[in-house]
Structure formats: C-alpha cells, structure tokens
Amino acid sequence: MDGMTSSKQQEEVARFVERFAAELTEAGMQRMAARVFAALLASESGSLTSAELAERLQISPAAVSGAIRYLTQVSMVGRERDPGTRRDRYVLHHELWYEAFTRRDQILIRWEKVLRDGSEILGTDTAAGARVAETAEFFEFVQKEMLGMLARWRAHRDAQAETSSA
Fold it and tell me: Phi and psi of 13, rounded to 5°?
C-alpha cells in the first residue's frame, strides 16, 4: 500500500494482513499485535508510524500503542524517530525470524535445565521423573536441530544473495 497502488490491490493487501494476523493469533500471538505486525510486514518499507498503522488497520492510537508495546517487548519491532519530526516510526527488525528463533533457542536451553533438575528431584526411577527427563531430552533434541536449521538457513540465504547479484 506504499506508493501508487490501486484500491483493489489495497483491498487484497488488507485481506492478506488480516489473514496472516489470524494465523498468528491462532498460534498464540495477541490479536492486535498480530494485526500490527502483519501490517508492518506487508508495508513496502517495513516501517510505519502510529498514525499510518491506525489508518491502515482502522484501529485507535491506544490499540496501536498496546500492540507496539508487546511487539517491542518480544523484540519483533523496533522504534525509531521519524527524521525531522517528533513522531516514532515502528520498524521490523532485520533478520526478524532468525532472531526470533535464536531467542527461542535460549528459552529451550533454560527449559531443558529446569526439566533436568526436575527429573532428579522427582527421581529418574519414578514415572513422573522419567516423563520429565524425556521432556528434557526432547527440548535438547529440538534445540540442537534448531541450531543446524538456522545455519542451513543462513547458508541458503547467502547462496540466494550470490545468485541474485551475479
């Protein structure tokens, strides 16, 4: 919707934003934060002001503020000063998904440690202890797989960049 676009294209983009926001909400993200995130993702520049977000999504400035607060807390969006004004511009972080999964990796490490401690407290010879130990093993497995997946993503992305610049 940045630049010269037809009203039909604007409607299609708005439908996409709402559709993707619904998917994010279904996955557990707050509804308004999901809508704001999807709008930023679909913007040409990857950044919008509060007024632009409110207009595009037909929501109040207070709703934008609450959504932005959540998105900045989870490090999905940054805040920059709009040059020459006192307005803030909200910007998607560079390598957004990579960073989100890297942070998730740290959470998995913490969960695994707590679960291992829990399995010892419960006793590895008990059903509860064995169940908690298996959960810890699962998170250890996922964490190791995620590290490999992120490395393969970077290699893939770098190879795509080399191909497109050649």
Answer: -65, -45
Give yes or no for a contact between 87 and 50, defined as CB atoms under 8 angstroms apart.
yes
Residue 31: alpha-carbon gap to chain centroid: 13
CA atoms of 161 and 154, how far apart (whole Å): 10
Q: What confidence tens digit (pLDDT) does each residue in 122-139 have?
A: 998 999 999 999 999 998
Q: Two tokens at 74?
A: 């989870």
Cα within 13 Å of Cα(115), Cβ side:
18
What's the pTM value of the predicted model, to 2 decimals?
0.72
**pLDDT of 54-77, one tens digit each?**
999 999 999 999 999 999 888 889
Residue with tokens 């994010």: 24
SS (H, E, C) the chain: CCCCCCHHHHHHHHHHHHHHHHHHHHCCCCHHHHHHHHHHHHCCCCEEEHHHHHHHHCCCHHHHHHHHHHHHHCCCEEEEECCCCCCEEEEECCCHHHHHHHHHHHHHHHHHHHHHHHHHHHCCCCHHHHHHHHHHHHHHHHHHHHHHHHHHHHHHHHHHHHHHHC
- Give the dihedral sign, CA 107/112/118/122: positive
